[in-house]
Amino acid sequence: MKNTIIMWTMMVLLSLLTACGGSDSSEDSNFKSDDSTADDSTTDDSTATEGPVLEDTASEVVTTLADINGFNIVANIRNPRTDFYGTEVEITAYVKDHSNNWVEDGTVITFVADDFGAIPDQCTTVNGRCKVTWVSSEDRTEGYADIPVNRSNDRFVTIMGRTIGEDSFIDKNGNSKFDTNEVWMTQSEPFLDSNDDGVYNPEVDEFDERMDFNGNGIFDEVFEKFRGESCSDAAISAGHCKTKVEIWATTRLIASVAGEATVSLTDCNATSYTNINVNTSTTYCILVVDENGNTPPVGTQISATVDILEVEVPPKAAVAETGDANGYSTEIRLKPKLADGETSGTLIIKVTSVDDKDTYLYVPVSDPS
Q1: What is the pLDDT of residues 116-125, one digit of tens each?
Q2: pLDDT tens digits for 245-273?
Q3: N or C: which end of the chain has fewer CB within 10 A?
Q4: What domain count does the chain have?
Q5: By three-state DSSP, how is residue 164 classified?
Q6: Are the beta carbons of 51 and 217 closer than 8 angstroms?
């Protein structure tokens, strides 16, 4: 009876499976249809010998294969302090197979990271997940002078996880096999995007690093055949499932720094205030950025005092965990004190960094009439 229930549950899961990756807009993954007739640009991973083969290629999984759509890397803190040795961030890999079941225990996930820290090279899954700890260790890599807004000095940490798996596919007939009339989602070979522009382009950024899984000596961006083990006989005859794929995912940390911050008071639409009207109730935004124009480290303290106005809604007491690199913004609402009589004063905003350095912003309060 127990086995019957398990088999019935698996059939229901497979029959409910829809285009579970159809909304993925990642620049390093794309959909393929069964109409592709081009030759597979990969070679059998058991015979490839030419070209530079990366020594630390992700290890084989045990039984069930992870698929591209079911692999994710998550950080518990995305704005850690990185300007000294010892800040720890927990990195968790979540690994599912085509049926959205957790992969077999013992699946090996390999990690690599770029600047500002160190990370263990691998972990093995239990119940579809495993964890490693990234530790800050400032590399002092210089930033880029021509980077766009929101990438100040390119002060980011990119962490990649990899494992052996297969492409994702939409299982129309519920047979748990990729058939030649079905659509699948594929992925380029892994690359560490050191300048965070979303493109592997070593001619522009010499620090972009690729992992040559099939050993052919070139970066393979597009694959015309399904890679994995879940192929029907007809799909195998059509040239699919000749090799598996090294699936990969990345997460990004802001390389936030402690010390003196830059603080501004705005109307919450980027217009700065240099004076506050004592007669009006107004909501403002306090914007705090670190020395590189990024969000300060989680835990940076914020407070505000004003002598002749009432702080109706105080700012949040500390910078929260966030992946937004555009600085940390928190609202403050001020209103007049009734029958106070005073018409001039000062709003004092104090920001205390995680290494106990204070930054102040003084904003005059007056009666413009």
Answers
A1: 899 999 999 9
A2: 999 999 999 999 999 999 999 999 888 99
A3: N
A4: 2
A5: strand
A6: yes
Residue 323 belongs to some domain of the structure: yes
Task: Tell me which residue range forms the domain holding 289.
Answer: 262-366
Structural domain ending residue among the three candidates 254, 284, 312: 254
User: What 3-state DSSP class applies to 336?
Assistant: strand
Sequence letter at residue 217: G
Number of Cβ within a 10 Å radius of residue 326: 14
Considering the domain architecture, whether residues 305 and 156 belong to the same structural domain is answered as no
Give yes or no: residues 355 and 291 share one domain: yes
Q: Is residue 9 part of a domain?
A: no
87 plus 153 within the same structural domain:
yes
Phi, psi (rounded to 5 degrees) for 2: -60, -45
First-residue to last-residue Cα distance in the chain: 84
Residue stretches of the chain with pLDDT short of 70 = 1-63, 139-154, 204-205, 338-340
Q: Please report whether residue 11 resides in a domain.
A: no
- Tokens read off for 147: 């980077």
What are 273-286's pLDDT values in tens digits? 989 999 899 999 99
Max CA-CA distance within the chain? 88
**Amino acid occupying residue 86:** G
Q: How far apart are CA 51 and CA 251, in angstroms?
A: 28
Q: State how far the Cα of 85 lies from the Cα of 199, in Å rounded to an integer.
A: 30
Three-state DSSP class for residue 2: helix
